[in-house]
Each structure stands twice: as structure tokens, then as C-alpha cells.
Write a structure and sequence with these properties.
Blueprint: E1 5-9, H1 18-26, E2 29-33, H2 39-46, E3 51-54, H3 61-66, E4 72-75, H4 85-90, E5 94-96, H5 103-119, H6 121-129, E6 148-152, H7 156-167, E7 171-175, H8 181-185, E8 190-191, H9 194-200, E9 203-206, H10 220-224, E10 231-234, H11 243-251, E11 257-260, E12 280-282, H12 291-309
Parallel strand pairs: 1-2, 1-3, 3-4, 4-5, 6-7, 6-9, 7-8, 9-10, 10-11, 11-12
Helix pairs in contact: 1-12, 5-7
């Protein structure tokens, strides 16, 4: 197929773009990669592009208004909070995400953090490295069985986590206003109100997108309803938690601990109080990652961009109101 489209990848943290180039060439597109860190840089390299693929850089309304030929904007990932979807829709530009590629990895990561925090694995490792061989150094540790795992949100990742958590003896409850109680009950999960979720959870794992409604949904008021022995787990988006309120609660003993794969500022400042708290486990926004999920992510976004450029309906179309503009493929 003759290459007639130009796809600009605005930023990426992969060693190469071989996967994207191979797939997009099959759809008649050439691929150029950049490492933009600002909207102005995106405008400079992408003004005449037929499509963009972004990872972290902000695709603002200013960027979107400057695009002369763009038909689609793809995002490496599930969330599209760095793309002004409304502005893209108004201009008829398809916004594409990858809603399914790392469910197993994220659910595994959340459970791994829960288990490591409960059994104080990091503490023991650090103690032994300093020459201290003493099981009593991590007291108290409590039995995991029959503790309550609360899930805020009950999408694909939360459902997988529920099954895995039940296998190690946890009772699971969930709050999601968009999921009927019967669907939760079918998976042996109790549907509860938001307040009940906060009050009953020994571990609270967050699985919601970042929206106006979920921004700082875990704030000082929410934390005040939680058990002081509870642990907060976040593998979704950093800003669903008010970090200031979280730090204060941890410092004052209003919350026992936190396991955070995502933060409001990434990477955090080195003087962040969270980095100095032994009851906090942190990973570098890595819950999504495996070699398999990374390849799947890249393949899916490149394929969907190719489809959109050729007038076919992308599987990951976010602004569904634009769906009538595309033909269904297959």
C-alpha cells in the first residue's frame, strides 16, 4: 500500500518504534517519532500530521485548534486525561485509547502491593540488609483471611482483582454507581454505598478513571470515615487522592498505610513526605507493565490509528459520537 498518511508520535518511552512503523505502514502511513514535552512542541511537529499518538504530553485545545489535517489522536494507555476530548470532538477528530491491554498486570500489581504491605516484606528486606535478623521487628502483623477488600469502581481490573483476592481469603465489597448489584453478586462481591465502602474496608483499592467527579474523591472527609487500621491502594490515577489529606492522615495515625503506583506529581519531589514513610509502598506507575502488555498496547493503538485514517471504526474510539463517520470493519 502506498504511504499517503503521516503519523506523528509526540512522545514515547520505548526503545524504538518498530512495532508502530510496521503496523502503520500496512495502513499506508509513515511514522515519525519525537519527544515533545510541551504543547508548543507538539504544534511544531504535528501541525500538518494526519494523526498523532501521544503518551504523556498534553494535547490541549490550543494544540487541537492548530492541527490542519489531523483525523485521529491516539493515546498509549487507557486514560485520556491529557487530551482535550471535547475540543477534538468539536473539530471532528477521533480520540483513541486502548481500553484493554493490562488488566491482568494491574490487578496482579494491586494484589502484590497488598500482600507485601500486609506481610511487611519491604521492611524485613531492609532490616536484613542492615544486619538485623529478627521476625519481631515487624510486629504487629495480622492474618489476612477474612479481612475486607473494598473496590472503588468495578470495571475489568477490579473484577479480576476481586477473584484473585478471594482466592487468598479476602472478603470483597465494591462501590460503582454504574454497575448493577446483581453483576457484583454474581462474582460473590457485595454492592455497598460509598460511605459503607469507606467504613468497612480493611484495604481500599481504587479503580476509577480521573474525571471531574473522581478528582480528589479520596479527601480528608473520605479518609475520616475509614478505619485507622486500613490501607489505601491506588493503581488508577494519582489525582483521585488528595495527597495532602493522605499525608496528614498517615502522619496522624488516622490511616495505617498506603500502596501507591500513581501520584499527583510523577515523579515526586525527593522531599515528598510519602517517600519518607515506612508504611507507604510506592512503585513508578508500573502496574500496567509487562513485556506482553507493552507490545499489545503499541499494536492496538497503531492498528486503530491506521483504521481511523482509512475510514474504519477504531475499537478504542473514545468520542463515540463520531462513530457514524466510520465504516465498521470486519
Amino acid at each position: 500500500m502506498k504511504k499517503s498518511f503521516r503519523v506523528v508520535i509526540t512522545d514515547y518511552n520505548y526503545p524504538d518504534l518498530d512495532i508502530e512503523k510496521e503496523i502503520l505502514s500496512q495502513w499506508g502511513a509513515s511514522t515519525e517519532g519525537f519527544q515533545c514535552i510541551s504543547p508548543d512542541e507538539v504544534i511544531e511537529v504535528g501541525r500538518e500530521a494526519d494523526a498523532l499518538i501521544a503518551q504523556y504530553v498534553s494535547i490541549t485545545i490550543h494544540v487541537i485548534k492548530s492541527l490542519n489535517k489531523c483525523k485521529a489522536i491516539g493515546r498509549y494507555g487507557i486514560g485520556v486525561d491529557n487530551i482535550d476530548v471535547n475540543a477534538a470532538t468539536a473539530k471532528g477528530i477521533a480520540v483513541i485509547n486502548v481500553p484493554s491491554y493490562c488488566e491482568e498486570e494491574v490487578s496482579d500489581h494491586a494484589l502484590a502491593m497488598l500482600l507485601a504491605w500486609t506481610r511487611k516484606v519491604v521492611h524485613y528486606t531492609n532490616e536484613i540488609r542492615q544486619g538485623h535478623w529478627d521476625w519481631k521487628s515487624a510486629r504487629p502483623i495480622y492474618r489476612l483471611q477474612d479481612k475486607v477488600l473494598g473496590l472503588l469502581g468495578f470495571g475489568k481490573i477490579a473484577r479480576l482483582l476481586a477473584r484473585k483476592a478471594q482466592a487468598v481469603g479476602l472478603k470483597v465489597i465494591a462501590h460503582d454507581p454504574y454497575v448493577p448489584a446483581e453483576k457484583m453478586q454474581a462474582l460473590a462481591v457485595d454492592s455497598v454505598t460509598f460511605e459503607e465502602l469507606l467504613q468497612q474496608s480493611d484495604f481500599l483499592s481504587i479503580h476509577v478513571p480521573l474525571t471531574k467527579e473522581t478528582y480528589h474523591i479520596i479527601n480528608s472527609t473520605a479518609i475520616s470515615l475509614m478505619k485507622p487500621t486500613a490501607c489505601l491502594i491506588n493503581t488508577s490515577r494519582g489525582s483521585v487522592i488528595d495527597e495532602g489529606a493522605l499525608v496528614e492522615a498517615l502522619q496522624n495515625g488516622r490511616l495505617a498505610g498506603a500502596c501507591l503506583d500513581v501520584l499527583e506529581k510523577e515523579p515526586p519531589d525527593l522531599d515528598s513526605p510519602l517517600l519518607k514513610m515506612p508504611q507507604v509502598l510506592i512503585s513508578p506507575h508500573a502496574a500496567w507493565y509487562s513485556e506482553e502488555s507493552q507490545r499489545e498496547l503499541r499494536r492496538k493503538v497503531a492498528t486503530d490509528i491506521g483504521k481511523a485514517l482509512n475510514g474504519l471504526l477504531p475499537e478504542g474510539l473514545v468520542n463515540r459520537e463520531l462513530a457514524p463517520r466510520f465504516k465498521k470493519s470486519g
